[in-house]
Design brief:
heterodimer; A: about 170 residues; alpha/beta; Beta Polymerase, domain 2; five-stranded mixed beta sheet; two-stranded parallel sheet; globular; B: about 400 residues; Cytochrome-c3 Hydrogenase, chain B; 2 domains; three-stranded antiparallel beta sheet
Chain lengths: ~170, ~400
C-alpha cells in the first residue's frame, strides 16, 4: 500500500509549526527522520497525533542510542511513529546530555510508552519525567548501572584475547 | 498492603473491598513458573474469591541481553539470536533480520528467494498459530485438539529440517537467500502436508469453533476495544481480533507479498474467542498463500549475488583464491558494511516484529533494537483481566500468545 503522505510535505508542516525546535532532518531509506529539541519532543509527538491531516497516532517503537563521542548530546531518544490510516512512518530523535538525560514522558499520549520508557530507562538511564512508574523492567532492581551504554563492554574485561581492536573496532 | 498503580502512578493504601463476597482479599501468585502461564511470567493478583481485583506484572526472568550481544557480533551471527525471540516461529524472525541487512546493503534479491521465503514464513505462521490455538483449547479443558495438531506441527518442523537441518531454533536462510535450493524431498513432504493438513485442521476446528462449552468459556473473556488496543500499540492477530485490519504484509509488503492474494481476517470484540477465530482464519489464508507461491514459483537462483555476505561453496574455498578471500572475510567479520540507519518490520506470529538497525560501518551493528510485539502488548494484560475470573486470566494470557523469549529478549 502506498503512503498517502509525502515526506517533504510533512516536514514542511512540522517546520511551519515548530520552527526553531526542528533541528535537522534526513530521509534514510525513505523514512522521514526529524531531530527535535528534547524540550519539544513531547509536544511534537502530541501534535502529530492530534493533527487530523496527519493522524500519526500509533507508537511503533521507542528506544535510545548512546553516542559517547557526541559532547553534550550523548544519548539519543528515538521514537518511531506510524499513521495507520495514511500508512506513513516517521522517526523522531531528541538528543540529551549524559549528565542529565531528562525528557518528558509520553505515557500521557500513548499508554504503550509505559514499558518502552521503562526499558529505555533500564538500559540507558534516560529519566522520563512524568512517568508513573519509572523503574527497571528487564534487569534486576539492585543493578546500579545502565548496561547498554557503550562504556560497558560485553566481554570479561580481564580477557585480552577478545580485544575489540582485533575485530575491526 | 500499599501499592502503586502502574498507569496512574498513584499510591493506594490497598484495594478497597467493594462488591466483595466476604470482604476478604487474598494475594495470589500466578507464575512465574506454572504450567498455566506457558512461560515465565509473574502476576501478583489481588483476588476476592475467584474475582481478580488487580494485577501486578513482573517480567525479565529470561532476559538474555540480545541487544547488547548484537553489538558485538558480525551480522551473520545475529540470525541465531533472532531464533530465540519468538521461538514458535523463528523462521520469520530469521528472515526479518536477513531482509533488514539486505535493505541496508542494498542487495537485489531474486524473486525466487522471495517466494521460497514466503513459503517458509507462512509455514512458520501456521506452526505458531497452531500452538497458540491448541493451547487455548487445553486451557479450556480440551486436550484432544492439542494432540491432533501437534502431529501436524511436527510435519512443519520436518519441512524446516529438510531445508536447514534444524527444527525449533532454525537459523534458516542466509543474508542473500538460502544455503541451498529446496530439495525434491522437501516438495514431496510439502505436497503431503498440504494434502493431509486441511483435513486434520478442519477436524480440530470442528472440535472447538462451534463447541458450546468452548464458546461459553471464551466469548467475552479478556476483551479489549479497538481504541484501547491501538493505545497499547497492539499489532498482529490480537489487534485484528479487536477489529483493526493492520497487517504489515499488506501495509508495507516485503518479500513480494504484494503478489499474493489473501484476506486479512478481523474480529469485532477483541476477546479470546475472536483472537482464536482470527488465528484460525489466518492459518487457512497461509495455506492459500503457500499454494499460490508453489504454483507461481519463479525460475532463478536461490541466492542473491552478494559475495561479501554469502559464503562461497566449500569446494571453491579450497580451489579458488577469490572464494577463499570472501570466506575469510565473512568468517572473520571483515566485510565492508555501509553506514546507515534502517527500520524494517515483518508480520511475525504475534504482530509487527521490527528491527531498528544503526550501522557505523563496523563489523557489528552500532545499535540494534528489536521491536518485540509481545513486550508491547503484554502491558495491557492487567487491564484485560481485572474484574474477571482467574480461569479467564489464564485463557486470556494463552490467547494473547505471550512468548517469554520474545518478551524478555
Amino acid at each position: 500500500m502506498k503512503s498517502k503522505l509525502e515526506n517533504n510535505a510533512v516536514l514542511e508542516l512540522l517546520n511551519g509549526k515548530f520552527g526553531e525546535n526542528i533541528k535537522s532532518s534526513e530521509q534514510p531509506f525513505d523514512l522521514l527522520t526529524v531531530e527535535v529539541t528534547s524540550e519539544s519532543a513531547h509536544e511534537v509527538v502530541s501534535w502529530l497525533k492530534s493533527e487530523p491531516s496527519l493522524a500519526i497516532s500509533f507508537l511503533t517503537n521507542l528506544g535510545a542510542v548512546h553516542y559517547p563521542d557526541n559532547q553534550g548530546r550523548e544519548i539519543a531518544v528515538v521514537y518511531h511513529l506510524h499513521s495507520l490510516t495514511n500508512n506513513f512512518r516517521i522517526r523522531l530523535k531528541a538528543y540529551l546530555p549524559i549528565e542529565n538525560p531528562e525528557i518528558k514522558s509520553i505515557t500521557d499520549i500513548y499508554i504503550a510508552a509505559n514499558w518502552m520508557e521503562r526499558e529505555t530507562y533500564d538500559f540507558y538511564g534516560v529519566q522520563f519525567t512524568g512517568h508513573p512508574n519509572l523503574k527497571r523492567i528487564l534487569n534486576e532492581d539492585a543493578m546500579d548501572y545502565f548496561p547498554m551504554r557503550k562504556e560497558y563492554h560485553m566481554e570479561d574485561a580481564t580477557r585480552e584475547d577478545k580485544d575489540d581492536r582485533f575485530f575491526g573496532r | 498492603m500499599s501499592q502503586i498503580d502502574q498507569h496512574t502512578g498513584k499510591e493506594s493504601s490497598g484495594i478497597v473491598a467493594r462488591d466483595t463476597i466476604d470482604g476478604e482479599i487474598a494475594t495470589l501468585n500466578l507464575g512465574p513458573t506454572h504450567p498455566a502461564t506457558h512461560g515465565i511470567f509473574q502476576n501478583v493478583l489481588q483476588v476476592d474469591g475467584e474475582k481478580i481485583l488487580s494485577s501486578e506484572q513482573t517480567v525479565g526472568y529470561i532476559h538474555r541481553a540480545f541487544e547488547k550481544l548484537a553489538e558485538r557480533r558480525p551480522y551473520n551471527q545475529i540470525t541465531p539470536i533472532t531464533d530465540r525471540l519468538n521461538y514458535c516461529s523463528s523462521p520469520i524472525n530469521n528472515m526479518g533480520w536477513e531482509m533488514t541487512v539486505e535493505k541496508l546493503i542494498g542487495a537485489e534479491i531474486p524473486k525466487r528467494v522471495d517466494y521460497m521465503r514466503v513459503i517458509i514464513m507462512e509455514l512458520a505462521r501456521i506452526a505458531d498459530h497452531l500452538v497458540c490455538n491448541s493451547v487455548v483449547g487445553v486451557d479450556t479443558g480440551a486436550l484432544t485438539g492439542f494432540t491432533y495438531v501437534f502431529q501436524e506441527r511436527e510435519k512443519i518442523y520436518e519441512l524446516f529440517e529438510e531445508v536447514c537441518g534444524s527444527r525449533l531454533t532454525t537459523n534458516i536462510g542466509r543474508i542473500g537467500g538460502f544455503e541451498r535450493d529446496f530439495s525434491d524431498e522437501f516438495y514431496k513432504k510439502l505436497d503431503n502436508f498440504l494434502k493431509t493438513f486441511p483435513k486434520v485442521f478442519n477436524e480440530f476446528d470442528s472440535l472447538l469453533s462451534r463447541n458450546r462449552i468452548f464458546m461459553d468459556r471464551t466469548i467475552g473473556a479478556g476483551p479489549i476495544s479497538a481504541e484501547r488496543a491501538l493505545e497499547y500499540s497492539f499489532t498482529g492477530p490480537n489487534l485484528r481480533a479487536a477489529g483493526v485490519d493492520y497487517d504489515v504484509r499488506v501495509m508495507n509488503p516485503y518479500s513480494s507479498y504484494e503478489d499474493f492474494d489473501f484476506i486479512v481476517p478481523v474480529g469485532t470484540q477483541g476477546d479470546t474467542y475472536d483472537r482464536f477465530q482470527v488465528r484460525q482464519e489466518e492459518i487457512r489464508q497461509s495455506l492459500l498463500i503457500i499454494e499460490q507461491a508453489l504454483k507461481n514459483m519463479p525460475e532463478g537462483s536461490y541466492k542473491a549475488d552478494v559475495p561479501d555476505f554469502y559464503l562461497p561453496p566449500k569446494e571453491d574455498v579450497y580451489n579458488n583464491m577469490e572464494a577463499l578471500i570472501y570466506h575469510f572475510k565473512i568468517v572473520m567479520g571483515e566485510t565492508p558494511i555501509p553506514v546507515g540507519e534502517v527500520y524494517h518490520s515483518v508480520e511475525g506470529g504475534n504482530g509487527e516484529l521490527g528491527f531498528y538497525l544503526i550501522s557505523d560501518g563496523g563489523r557489528s551493528p552500532y545499535r540494534l533494537q528489536f521491536r518485540r510485539p509481545c513486550f508491547i502488548y503484554y502491558q495491557a494484560y492487567p487491564e484485560m483481566i481485572t474484574g474477571s475470573n482467574i480461569s479467564d486470566a489464564v485463557l486470556t494470557m494463552s490467547s494473547m500468545n505471550v512468548i517469554a523469549g520474545e518478551l524478555d529478549a
